[in-house]
């Protein structure tokens, strides 16, 4: 009896350790092309179900009329929103034991939102100049990852004339307001300002 053994080549991989793509890619966009080499009918599959809402794996057009495709496209099926993708990354496997992480890069595409539409504080007229107003912290939030917000203070309303030099936000990355000029209740007992916040790019 003759016994023949047919040895198949082990699957090797051209899969990179990571791929980075920007969020907000339109539906139908090829965000990456990955090639897997070897003779064991290579494949590329997603790890995890949630990302199937955003990306699918398809054969690259170069694979038309071929028995086994080793090149794959990662295509969006829905606009990618970084804030809604679990963990901010997608994991793929090619069957060789090697995985690839597709990282969704965050963009500043959300408008900062203040914690309150109106802030109010009462301070003594003899408050020391260059003192931050206690118990008053203007805060805004941005759903983008690690946003850098800049604050500014401008006079507002009918009581705003001539108050430019009394209070300031000295640290533009912090919403604390500092009294920078001596106050006099008899001269002025009400101040109204508008706080603006911008995303620093």
From TrEMBL:
Residues 115-197 form the Cadherin domain. Gene3D superfamilies: Cadherins. PROSITE patterns: CADHERIN_1, CADHERIN_2. Keywords: Calcium, Glycoprotein, Membrane, Repeat, Transmembrane, Transmembrane helix. This is Protocadherin gamma-B7-like. One of its GO terms (molecular function) is calcium ion binding. It is found in: Membrane. Its main location: membrane. It is a single-pass membrane protein. One of its GO terms (cellular component) is plasma membrane. InterPro entries: Cadherin-like_dom, Cadherin-like_sf, Cadherin_CS, Protocadherin/Cadherin-CA. GO terms for biological process: homophilic cell adhesion via plasma membrane adhesion molecules.
